[in-house]
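Support reply, case 0932

Customer input (verbatim):
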Amino acid sequence: MGEPGDRVSKAALAAGLVAARERTLALLGPLPDGELTRQVSPLMSPLVWDLAHIAWYEEMWLLRRLAGTPPVDPKLDDLYDAFRHPRAERRSLPLLEPERALTYAADVRERALGVLERVELDPADPLRADGFAFALVAQHEQQHVETMLQTLQLRAEPYPLGPPAPAGSPVDPAEVLVPAGAFVLGTDSEPWAYDNERAAHELELPAFWIDATPVTNLAYAAFVADGGYDEPAWWSPEGWKHRRQAGLEHPRFWRREGDGSWSRARFGHVEALPPDEPVLHVCFHEAEAFARFAGKRLPTEAEWERAASWDAAAGRKRRYPWGGDVPDGRANLGGRHLGPAAAGAYPSGSSPDGCRQLVGDVWEWTASEFRAYPGFAAFPYREYSEVFFDSGYRVLRGGSFATHPSVARATFRNWDIPIRSQIFAGFRCARDA
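Our regenerated output:
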């Protein structure tokens, strides 16, 4: 789902919905009901809440908004509207039990597919044009699969892992020079892009250097070994305050073994820390501190998108760093490996300037705060983007190993508060030319 040639066909829209549901059910399948209903952390919802919320969101947009059907159960609006109850209190709500949540989701899906068969994809109606509402629902479910994977990462119990990710290879040079010039930030051409990705607008950027790959565990371990967590000069005042209050000494899920080596916990499995993989589960402040230690900085999101999408020779934007082809074999996406690939993997996924792994593996923190682009218009609801603007959220780009390709386009903007580290986030560095 999501490729230019098939994006307006009803068959492709249905396939996108089905694929998202198959992924949701496959993810939750190995877990007993008790694991679905317990709250692993106040940072995350019980998994059964995510499951029923996915169905409620689908009901809201496809059954109630498009088809005009009455609510399945009006009480569900209070339980599953994400803005009515913070995650920390959701376990105390009278949530649907797993079997009822599954039945509710299956019922809504059957009726939604019926709506898709009947509805006209009217280009005059923004919700129907190019099947936007159906794509919105499929993307939303895929995003919640990644959220549920974050919950599973916080559990102590082992979760089944996938096959290992591809090996990496040395990348020379380690930095890429991106020449000065104008490029287009954002999009007006992606039919299923979110409102915060719009409107496309031209920016002039000076030349800059950007790392060819994300920062690795080996490089980050050198920062830890050099006392980087004890040196306030590397940290912003806000970052240093958080480091002290949270007692940060190393990335989340790292553990020092008796022989001095590092291990990590990955979905409940403890394993030796892979030195060549991108560092994972660092917050914005940790990423920023490392960048200063390295004599660099974090890229702005405009610099990141310029490096990831702009084909200067052709004078046009690419959907992905490598072009418009599907990501198969070009990026680590979709949760198949449940972990990043080593730095330097996926050479066929390189950007025009020679960067690798800009899409997939780890979300990459940028220096930018989450703000509206010029010409922004909230659609289809303010709570998706607008209420988060100018509130201290930092932008992340590129997607992780858990991100579905349907939301891995180069214009996609993720955001979170600077202290978050349960997300699958790493970073790469930049510097002025």
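We compared this against your earlier run and they match. Two observations from our side: Residues 2-6 have pLDDT under 50 and may be disordered. Residues 10 and 331 are 27 Å apart (CA to CA). Please reopen the case if you see a mismatch on your end.
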